[in-house]
Design a protein that fits this description.
This protein has helices spanning about 5-10, 15-30, 35-45, 50-60, 70-80, 85-100, 105-110, 115-125, 130-140, 155-160, 170-185, 190-200, 205-210. The chain is about 65% helix and about 0% strand. The chain is mainly α. It is built from 13 helices and no strands. It is globular.
Length: about 220
């Protein structure tokens, strides 16, 4: 595990950036159960696709009352979105719909004595189709300025000098390092991740993709 690039990035973060990201993402934190559900939908649609396809698919699916009881329509919308993995996404989302609405609290709030990572790992065991990274992404979007987990995707593995396909067992190690560095710099792990991703995209903020979550 290499940390030179990681340390350089955290040293580059300016206080004004932290303030701007906190202010923006605090406004996007879900207040209603429907919005919490849609954050999970967004996470499902983010698996093995580009952010552009992710957003396009989400725009087609965000009115979930149209399809949550209609598996055929869900599949049709996924095919139309061209986000890929249409059959598996249909199966995974159809299963998740039933489980989420049967026990909402399980998916939107950790237990009082439970750590963030324990909650995340518990959800990973029960959510078909989302691994550790994407469940973390859902929790990041649910609690953007609070969550103490991080979606350590292939890009962040590379920053640590690792190959996600070969070094997956290092997930907890690099996540713990990222979370620790974020806390020492005074921002949430997700805010650090958004800053890193946006800078890599040569963007000044997250709205080029996150605006789909604003409505």
């Amino acid at each position: 595990m290499l940390t030179d690039k990681v340390a350089k990035f955290f040293s580059s973060i300016r206080d004004k950036e932290i303030s701007n990201y906190n202010n923006y993402w605090s406004q996007l934190q879900p207040r209603l159960i429907d919005d919490a559900f849609k954050r999970y939908v967004f996470a499902f649609l983010s698996v093995h696709t580009t952010w552009e396809s992710n957003c396009k698919a989400y725009n087609l699916l965000k009115d979930f009352n149209q399809w949550k009881d209609n598996e055929a329509l869900l599949h049709k919308k996924l095919v139309r979105s061209r986000c890929g993995m249409h059959n598996n996404r249909t199966k995974y989302l159809n299963k998740f719909i039933k489980e989420f609405w049967a026990d909402q609290a399980k998916f939107v709030a950790k237990e009082e004595e439970e750590s963030w990572t324990d909650w995340r790992d518990r959800l990973v065991k029960s959510i078909l189709g989302l691994g550790k990274a994407k469940v973390s992404f859902a929790l990041e979007m649910l609690y953007p300025v609070e969550a103490q987990v991080a979606c350590m995707d292939t890009h962040l593995f590379q920053v640590y000098g690792l190959d996600q396909s070969k070094d997956a067992k290092q997930y907890d190690t690099i996540e713990a390092d990222w979370v620790d560095r974020s806390n020492k710099r005074g921002l949430a792990p997700y805010m650090a991740r958004c800053l890193y991703w946006d800078k890599n995209q040569n963007r000044k903020n997250s709205r080029y993709w996150s605006k789909v979550l604003e409505k």
